[in-house]
Amino acid sequence: MSGMKSGWDEQLEECRSRLGRILSKDSPKNTLLPRLRPSFSDDEDARATLPTASTSPADDFRRSIKVTSSQRAAERTRLWQENDKERQAKILAEAERRLKEAVSLRIEEENAANAEYNLQRMQREEQRQQPRRSEGAVRKAETPERASISLAPSRAIGASSPEVEEPSSSTDSGEQSSPSEPVTSPPAQEDNCKSAEIFNCLRGLQKTMHDLQAVLQNLPKPETASPEVRQTHERYKTLIAEANVLFRSFTQGGLRNSEMLAQVVARHEETKALLQLANAQLGTVSHIKTKGAEAEQRAKLAQQQERKLDVRPEQKIPQPSQPPQSPQKPEVEVKKEPVVSTEERARNIYEHYAEKTKQVRSSFPSLESDPSLKTLKSAVLFASSNPIAICSANSPMEVIEPFRKAFFLLRGAEVDTNSIKFRLSDHPEIVHCARYNMAKKFIDLAVMQTEEKNEVKLFALATFITELWACDREFGETFLALLFTEYPVLIPYYGKPSIKADNVELSLKKIGAISKFYAAIMQTDRTFLLRRLFPTKVFEGRNPHGAEGGWELLAGLANQDIEVGTTVLVLRNTLSIAGWLLKKYYEKQFSKLLIYVSRHMLPKIRERTPKELMGPVERLNELMETYHRTMTIAVPENRLSDDFWQQ
Q1: pTM of the model
Q2: Is the keyword Protein transport in the record (predicted)?
């Protein structure tokens, strides 16, 4: 232990000596111990005891440069960040301001468009209601439930629609309160109820006035009428003036109390009584007119009888001794119309439409030959063919939107293409070129739908062209001319061959597709597109080439000789697609026609058709057997139903 302790003591002494040399700066430069760094303590005694490291002026200068550079860099960074924040804030403020302006401008445009649309709709509704009001039928007074229709005077009634009681002919004096008596019920609620009752009575008075006006229009005019009818006309004018005063007072916010209600009810009852009197006078006038017409008819019959007997007052009746001479009847020449065979009639139709096709193709020579109109011609071709090309049966809008473009093009609206803007009035030949190109595009696109899965697109195109045809009959004639000229088998006319010998299969596919398209046009019996574009208008809904065209085609196929391949194809496609509509229209005649097809046409078709073309024959035979078993023909599956248009 003593030896170990002495060793420790020696090492400790050595360490003390070395530390002393360092502190006294007597240590050599190659000492292993590092120099002591200056202390950063706040204690002054410690600063005095610890040695400070010596630095050269160059080190101080470099250190000051580094500090200054770092401070400047920090300042630049801070300034850049502040400028960036200000710039971002300005950009966000400008974007927000522009967005608010755009939103406000969009709202103003929508409000203006909505106001204009509502005004036009009210005008159209008023024009549509005007003919209905002039009908001579006597209508019953409108019930309170029907009188709750919102009109302009109803704004004074209030936002809520209270239950309206039936207006009585006399006012209850107990409901009126004198000014000196206190009002037990809230005045706003009382005024509201009075306004509702007065409005219902005014609505009924208005309807009765319209009915009375319709009846008076059928009566003789006051200048030529009897005193009773003239007095009815004068009383009607007086009631109209009084009713206008009441309506004006109500709409301008006049006093609405029991007294006004009594006046309105009194005018209504008086108008009803005058309406009954006018109806009675109208019945009397009609009876007199009927008697006069019967007397005039009897006089005419008597004159005709006298002419037949040839007995006139100035002639003497022959004596019994003299045999009476029988009057000679005038000889009437009966012109017999020449009997035209079915083949000759089909040839005349084909020649007529062939000539029409030549006229259509030569109706826009300037657009074809003038180089300065090349851009206009390209724009017309694009605007007339693009809507038909994009038509699809995937959704209703894919049929409605192309129809809208084609409809407004033919109506003369401005069309914007990629090249120029134009309308039909810019050149007299644009409308002929557009009709021709649209008709040709319909035919070319229909011929391409040779696959069974594409049959639904044929129905979409058929709806498109049918409603466009109903709006522009000249376009329909152009379409028929091109269709019958290129495919005369649809007349049917067999003078021009329909099948090309070099490609029989492709020709039959095209005839099958175009015959399906033609049959789809026939069976389109409703207007969907026009109603979606103009919901407030009423359309006739009649197909310009409907069941009549289908019957002419079937009758022509039955009365002519059979052409191998085409007759059975056209017959089967027409019956399978449009047969349900023909059955609905012609019933017994249609059944007789199908019996003739089964008994006479099918055996001949089987005899003449080769084995490789027996597919349509078998399908026609199956269709005939199904019809004779069920006496019905099913509606085609791919027809665009009501559910499709309600999407």
Answers
A1: 0.51
A2: yes
